Amino acid sequence: xxxxxxxxxxxxxxxxxxxxxxxxxxxxxxxxxxxxxxxxxxxxxxxxxxxxxxxxxxxxxxxxxxxxxxxxxxxxxxxxxxxxxxxxxxxxxxxxxxx
Length: 99
Fold this sequence. Notes:
- By secondary structure, this protein is an alpha+beta fold.
- The chain has helices at 3-12, 38-46, 53-60, and strands at residues 15-18, 26-35, 67-77, 90-91.
- The radius of gyration is 16 Å and the shape is elongated.
- The termini are far apart.
């Protein structure tokens, strides 16, 4: 599956669940909303540590960079010890609302 196919699938079904393999890490779920703000894309490309993006953007333009904002975000902290314990998700206030 290539990047265009993945983007088409994500656009068709923007719900997601993000987790890491580390213990005790937050798990986040929500709705991915595409962001086309040129100023934000420039900020991302020019941020320290993202120098590797600059040649790609220089040769292909900012449209190469796909940015998503999380709307209706919820988080939980998952561990093996609390795997089956009841948990209430924590709303990620302000996420995906231009904040």
